[in-house]
Amino acid sequence: MKLSSLILATKNMGKFKEAKRMLEPYGIRVELPEEDIYVEETGRSFLENAYLKAKAYYYVYSSPILAEDAGLEVECLDGYPGIYSSRFYSIDYGGREEVSGSVDEANIRKVLRLTAKAEDRSARFISFFVLHMGDGGYWSRGECKGKILKEPAGEGGFGYDPIFSPEGFDVSLAQLRPEDKDRISHRGKALRNLISIIKNGGLL
Ligand code: ITT
């Protein structure tokens, strides 16, 4: 069987845009689920959470599902936000943060507050994808190393992009052109790994 389309099990439009623009050149149509399915991300790792999302959506659609779990790990914060990246503002670690604007803005404010005096500002983004095909599946991983900036910069991307500067650059991920982010990002690397894995598996 050749993989010509899949459903991306996400509610995050930033993620969707990135996966779509990176997979469609390979002839894979990327669709959003029509139904809003609630998945409790109870896993203790990115991979486990990606699998939980893929499994829940496969149960409803019975067609190829791609799911991702990603996050930011900050060295001086014991690896937090980690698997809590999307709701870091709301967890006890480091104290809760008020949401006055968007959730992304509150998450960023919390990371900046907790790293305000840190000398070691190293951090990395991690991405795990799971492709669920029913009778089997594939997974892949990607990582992007960098550091936490002292203040937000740039308008592009999503999530923590304005406060993350990737290794080898002196700007934030939010200041890069989309194609440049894809080339170096955790998601770009994980998706290219997935492509080569499914090519070997004869799906492309
Ligand atoms: P779905 O579970 O619906 O896919 P989500 O946003 O909840 O969407 P995750 O659980 O994988 O996704 O959490 C990822 C969070 O990590 C995301 O909300 C951002 O805060 C952050 N993140 C992941 N990738 C990022 C990127 O490329 N740039 C900036 N922040 C990112």
Keywords:
single chain, 204 residues, alpha/beta, 6-stranded mixed β-sheet, 21% strand, globular, binds inosine 5'-triphosphate
Largest sheet: 6 strands, mixed
What radius of gyration results from the CA coordinates? 17 Å
If you average the pLDDT, what whole number results?
Answer: 97
Shape: globular
Helix content: 25-40%
Number of strands: 6
Global structural class: alpha/beta
Cofactors, ions, other ligands:
inosine 5'-triphosphate
SS element count, helices: 5
Encode the helix/strand succession as letters: EHEHEHEEEHH
Q: Beta fraction of the residues?
A: 15-25%
Unreliable stretches, pLDDT < 50, 5 or more residues?
Answer: none
What is the spatial order of strands in the main beta sheet?
A: 2-1-3-4-5-6
Distance between the termini: 9 Å
